[in-house]
Design a protein that fits this description.
GO terms for molecular function: DNA binding; sigma factor activity. InterPro entries: RNA_pol_sigma-70-like, RNA_pol_sigma-70_dom, RNA_pol_sigma70_r2, RNA_pol_sigma70_r4_t2, RNA_pol_sigma_r2, RNA_pol_sigma_r3/r4-like, WH-like_DNA-bd_sf. Belongs to the sigma-70 factor family. ECF subfamily. The structure is a single chain. The longest helix has about 35 residues. This protein is mainly alpha-helical. α1 packs across α3 and α2 crosses α3. Helix content is about 70%, strand content about 0%. The chain has two domains: about 80 residues, Orthogonal Bundle (Rna Polymerase Sigma Factor, Chain: A); about 80 residues, Orthogonal Bundle (Arc Repressor Mutant, subunit A).
């Protein structure tokens, strides 16, 4: 594990942290759901300090209120994010028909079918890129253009790669069928 690089003497961020970090942590502990969230909030405040050093007030009396203002805004963002996440979870649960277990596992759905093992074997023989593109379209329900966006490809490139990946999957499935037809039967 890498060790932390010591701050140079007189580092303004380090000085701010030493002077106001404990007070900010107390503020965060009184407002956050738990200790880890409070520590994250204080860290986020100092990320802002590092990213915007020109906005930190130069006068000693202005720094502490400014830091608390950043903490307040950061906490408000965290709370809005929590609300949005909760709403999204509710919408997903409603869209999925209220399944108790959450999102169904596409692999589990395939496992219910007799050819699941065969498809998994064929997919395992493909490259990671082919497997990812095929599963984004087949399991996750993305369009080829949507898969292109997810993979950072041009839509035309994704369509060509998808066509080639489907061809390789068919070949792999055919090879598995041929191998199983020619394999000797087990004797009891």
């Amino acid at each position: 594990m890498p060790t932390a690089r010591p701050s140079p003497p007189g580092d303004p961020v380090e000085d701010l942290y030493r002077e106001h970090g404990r007070a900010l942590l107390g503020y965060a502990l009184r407002r956050c759901a738990g200790r880890e969230e409070a520590l994250d909030l204080v860290s986020d405040v100092f990320v802002v300090v590092c990213r915007r050093p020109d906005q930190v007030p130069q006068d000693e009396d202005g720094r502490r209120p400014w830091l608390f203002g950043v903490a307040r805004l950061t906490l408000a963002n965290l709370q809005r994010s929590r609300v949005r996440s909760g709403r999204l979870g509710q919408r997903l649960a409603a869209d999925l028909g209220g399944e108790a277990d959450g999102v169904p596992d596409p692999a589990a759905l395939l496992a219910a079918r007799a050819d699941a093992r065969r498809v998994r074997q064929a997919l395992a023989g493909l490259s990671d890129a082919d497997r990812e593109l095929l599963t984004l379209v087949a399991w996750e329900g993305l369009t080829p253009a949507g898969a292109a966006t997810a993979l950072g490809l041009a839509p035309g490139t994704a369509r060509v790669r998808l066509h080639r990946a489907r061809t390789r999957l068919r070949t792999a499935l055919t090879r598995l069928d041929t191998d199983s037809d020619t394999a000797p039967e087990e004797t009891p």
